[in-house]
Model the fold of this input.
Amino acid sequence: MNRVTPSATRQQVVSSLQASLARLQATQDQISSGKRLGKPSDSPTDTATAMSLRSESLRNEQLQRAMDDGAGWLASADSALMQSGPLLQRARQLALAGTNDTNSTDERAAMAAEVDQLRSSLLDVANTRYLGRAVFAGTQDTENAYASSGAYLGNTTAVERRITTGPDRLEVSIVGPQAYSTLFADPSDPAGAGILQRLSDALRSGDKAGMEQGLRDLDAASSTLRTSQSIIGARTTRLESVRSVSETAATRASVQLSTVEGIDLAKALTDLSVQQTAYQAALQATAKVVQPSILDFLR
Done:
């Protein structure tokens, strides 16, 4: 027959109290943090799931940043193209008016001066920047897409942003020659002059054939500009569509992560109350069962 000594009883009681206190502290930690996974050993399976969901959330956040940046590029390009349309329309009106034989040389010179101003305004718009980079310069790191002479300073590679976790990338800019064609400079012209410069020269010299050619060239340039606007619009639509899907996925991952890591607060508070009551009761019972001996006083 085994004999239970007072020392063994004390050890067993202390061990039980420590286990109860550990459970109480664990519940308090869960309530204070709002999470039931404080360390991997709490639940290895749920910990692995939580790590996977966190990785997914980080990828979604990275994609959202890329899409936000891409949306900024597209909005800047769209705004610039919208401003360019009325300027080209005004240049066309001047070209059409210049072909009227009732205009004097001075009147055509005034029209030419206005075309020059329109050209400068269009150059300013074509040099629109986003976050310090020229929107229509492609991937070229240059302050402006066009020089004052009309020469293109960028390259022909559009800026791209990754919009999915796969290999898909979306062009979020449009290069200058694709949007503004030869409005500012034309390599095929002997002097390299662009459409607007040729129109201005024709108005000053009274070259009616040159004005009529300027009209046709401006119509073609306007068509190119509208096509560029359509391209930017289509890319914006695709970006917003992907963004919507990505936001839904991010929300789903966040909810799943909360489910895996989070606690049921009402249940946790109930557990805490029960554990506190049980711990206090255990302390009182221990005080009655484990009586101090003469040795305790001697120590």
Q: What stands out?
A: The two ends are 31 Å apart (CA to CA). The CA atoms of residues 194 and 295 lie 108 Å apart. The longest strand covers residues 160-162. The chain has eight helices and four strands.
